[in-house]
């Protein structure tokens, strides 16, 4: 095999090339772009907005059944970009994580108990919960039943941790195939405000002020870097319109309301919400009037 040709080194995901590359992981990133969809995420002062293209591949399909936006919990949203066949896998992983957290944590008056019913903490902050959930995921608290009365027991970091871990495992075994999906997770933290995370096929996950995934990812990131240069504190409307205008700019087309999907969370109403075509149309009109 000649050095630098890549020949043979992409037959197994666990084999590094002489240049230190894992070709099959790189192919997974290319698969995300090959789906032909671009997604944008923007974090504002008191809100987070994600926008993606809505492409219906067949005229006989019901458009309402085609989506890249998924409500993981009432307060956590997921935008999955990439190979269509992998989207349900990511959502299923999120649902399993949610179910594990929800049903392993018995509801007992908002306190933490061990198996003998002894109260460990009478009140739990998000920081405490995050710490204990992390230990639980690492197997260090398997002797405890974690109990809380909050409906948002699944935190965004917990979810991203599980998605990234699963994606990383898929890059370590020759009999597995990497997930050709980039997942954006959005939510409102009670202590730290709006949060936007992105998980990639290699198992990385980071928090972002703004980010992009898909076909025109780099062009969108260049656009967003200029918009976010001075750390602007966008209002809710500005956050939504910045995300939509970024998508329109990099793809160089004016969208109709039924050609994009928009998901938001707001501090005043932290529930994850997918905007209706009427709401999207209002923002599109505001963008066109502003420009």
Q: Give the N-to-C terminal Cα separation.
A: 55 Å
- How many beta-strand runs? 13
The best one-word shape is: globular
Describe the strand arrangement of the main beta sheet, using strand numbers. Answer: 11-1-2-12-13
Q: What helical percentage do the residues reach?
A: 25-40%
Average pLDDT works out at 78
- Give the percentage of residues in beta strands: 15-25%
Question: What is CATH's topology name of the domain at 23-86 and 160-290?
Answer: Glutamine Phosphoribosylpyrophosphate, subunit 1, domain 1
Any idea of the CATH class of the domain at 23-86 and 160-290?
Answer: Alpha Beta
Name the poorly predicted regions: 1-5, 102-124, 136-153
Biggest pleated-sheet summary: 5 strands, antiparallel
Helix and strand element order: HEEEEHEEHEHEEEEHHEEH
Tally of helical segments = 7
Rg calculated over all Cα atoms: 21 Å
Keywords: Cytoplasm, Membrane, Nucleus, Proteasome, Transmembrane, Transmembrane helix
Organism: Artemisia annua (Sweet wormwood)
Subunit structure: The 20S proteasome core is composed of 28 subunits that are arranged in four stacked rings, resulting in a barrel-shaped structure. The two end rings are each formed by seven alpha subunits, and the two central rings are each formed by seven beta subunits.
Subcellular location: Cytoplasm; Nucleus
């Amino acid at each position: 095999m000649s050095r630098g040709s890549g020949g043979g080194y992409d037959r197994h995901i666990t084999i590094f090339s002489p240049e230190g590359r894992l070709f099959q992981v790189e192919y997974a990133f290319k698969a995300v772009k090959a789906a032909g969809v671009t997604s944008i995420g923007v974090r504002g002062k008191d809100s987070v907005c994600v926008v993606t293209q809505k492409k219906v591949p067949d005229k006989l399909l019901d458009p309402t059944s085609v989506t890249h936006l998924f409500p993981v919990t009432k307060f956590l949203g997921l935008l999955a970009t990439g190979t269509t066949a992998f989207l349900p896998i990511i959502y299923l992983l999120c649902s399993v994580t949610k179910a594990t957290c929800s049903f392993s944590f018995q509801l007992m008056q908002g306190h933490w108990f061990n198996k003998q019913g002894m109260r460990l903490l009478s009140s739990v902050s998000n920081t405490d919960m995050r710490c204990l959930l992390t230990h639980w995921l690492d197997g260090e608290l398997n002797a405890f039943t974690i109990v809380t009365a909050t409906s948002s027991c699944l935190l965004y970091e917990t979810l991203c941790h599980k998605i990234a871990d699963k994606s990383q495992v898929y890059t370590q075994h020759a009999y597995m195939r990497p997930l050709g999906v980039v997942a954006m997770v959005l939510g409102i933290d009670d202590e730290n405000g709006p949060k936007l995370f992105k998980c990639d096929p290699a198992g990385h996950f980071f928090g972002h002020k703004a980010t992009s995934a898909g076909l025109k990812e780099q062009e969108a990131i260049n656009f967003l870097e200029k918009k976010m240069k001075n750390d602007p504190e966008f209002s809710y409307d500005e956050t939504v319109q910045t995300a939509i205008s970024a998508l329109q700019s990099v793809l160089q087309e004016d969208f109709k309301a039924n050609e994009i999907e928009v998901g938001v969370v707001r501090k005043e109403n932290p529930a994850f919400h997918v905007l209706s075509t009427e709401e999207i149309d209002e923002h599109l009109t505001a963008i066109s009037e502003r420009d």
